[in-house]
Amino acid sequence: AAAAAATAADAAAPASTPPPPGYTELTEGRAKVVFPTGQVFYNPAQVVNRDLSVLTLRHTVAALRAERGAPAETYSVLEGLAASGLRSLRYHLEVPGLSTVTANDVDAAAVATITRNVAHNGVSPAAVTPSCADAVALMASHRAADRRFGAVDLDPYGSAAFLLDAAVTAVADGGLLAVTCTDLGVLCGNQVDAGYARYGASPMRGAFAHEMAVRLVVFATAAAAARHGRSVTLLLGAKIDFYVRIFVRLRDSKAGAKERLTTSALVHVCSGCHTPVTQPLGARKAPNKLTLVSAPAWGVSPPPPAGTCGLCGGRVAVGGPIYTPPLCDPTVVGELRTALGADATDLASADRLEALLALLQAEAAVATPLFLHLATMCKVLRCNAPPAAAVRAAVRAHGFGVALSHTDPQAVKTDAPPALVWEILVLWVARCKGDAVLAAARSAVAAADAAVGGRRDGVTAAPVAAASTATAPADATAAGGGDAAAAAAPA
Ligand SMILES: C[S@@+](CC[C@H](N)C(=O)[O-])C[C@H]1O[C@@H](n2cnc3c(N)ncnc32)[C@H](O)[C@@H]1O
Ligand SMILES: [Zn+2]
């Protein structure tokens, strides 16, 4: 594939011209763009975004051609909001097997820039075609099956939400949709009303907000696809720098569209201990059957009791729904990593991409959405943070999976019940306080354990309450004398 990439790029080898007088040239990947000297429109922070997109598009084109046995050069790409055309030029020059790239922008001045940059790279407008249109109108006009694109890339300023409905109909069966959203403030719960208006789901604040932001964008994309009888397969979704970026493959599948019920969940977050708990909207009763979880007979029920935290008795806020499965396909990400090591050494941000992809892949090993956050938990318990590795090891020792999050090094992402992680911290606090308190905490934990038969699959009310009784309140510096004690209700 390395050779193929090189050959395709060399075949297209641009005979680029020197920049016109008064213009400065800038190179990224194999593309060169010119801009009036002194005028800054280039955002170097987006190099990672474009490199990751080149890498993922190469992978998807190869996958699609293998699946379809399609002849070479049948894969068309639309960049809906192309600005300078840099990304479109990079796709043409760095991704083998593309037929055409349409570099569209609604702004006539941007399209003049795109046209200039296409010529500057010695690329034919038939290969990278400048287009001036509203992206929504353009995508809607490519809705017919024979007019769809192999890939659509949306990289707006702010939210891409208004583009999603048209985009999901403009991508061919099995094709790729890549979406950037830079409205992280809204996606992280700073304006819940705006977030709900855009994404059809309520963002929330919290240590997990960045991960939730990625999940909200996938949720909204999958919702748009489902309205058109299509399903999405997430290749990867990540929060990078100041934006969310997701890559999904779209398929014509009414069954897949309905399957969304099993991958969507409400999020309950306690205002006292900040523990997030998800409540799936649906589950499989039997293969090929979707059922609502609200029927207790089907084995999954809402977290009890409504409105109160099962751990500390705090008030629970609700948000979402979010998309719940892991944020990447670990096999695809493994292949992307292999490509990075072997074929994609041309990508300037390869080291950073490798670090990101490694984290995403490890994160995907634990299927639980969102996470507990060590620093936040320690703040609740008013204790110094134990080493994160020790907490993770303790969780693992109980037989549960635990991973980091690409969004936060303090994350404890685990399939263990939150109660267990709290108990581990409570024991840590107690150990710091001395043997008598430790014994008290241990017996509280043992009692909680006995009540649920050792391995806890539900949430117990014991741990945070245990923290407060084990350590409060005589010593003002004691852990547990603060928020947790205030929030704790009798078990
Ligand atoms: C962030 S820039 C795109 C950067 C580009 N994707 C890249 O990687 O270099 C956003 C662009 O979207 C364009 N735009 C805004 N609304 C649009 C719409 N409705 N249709 C098409 N383009 C639009 C703006 O003119 C602007 O050039
Ligand atoms: Zn709580």
TrEMBL record:
The keyword tRNA processing applies. GO terms for biological process: tRNA N2-guanine methylation. Belongs to the class I-like SAM-binding methyltransferase superfamily. Trm1 family. This is tRNA (guanine(26)-N(2))-dimethyltransferase. Pfam families: TRM. GO terms for molecular function: tRNA (guanine(26)-N2)-dimethyltransferase activity; tRNA binding. The keyword RNA-binding applies. It is an enzyme of class 2 (transferase). It comes from Porphyra umbilicalis (Purple laver). Keywords: Methyltransferase, RNA-binding, S-adenosyl-L-methionine, Transferase, tRNA processing, tRNA-binding. It catalyses: guanosine(26) in tRNA + 2 S-adenosyl-L-methionine = N(2)-dimethylguanosine(26) in tRNA + 2 S-adenosyl-L-homocysteine + 2 H(+). Its EC number is 2.1.1.216. The lineage of its organism: Eukaryota, Rhodophyta, Bangiophyceae, Bangiales, Bangiaceae. One of its GO terms (cellular component) is nucleus.
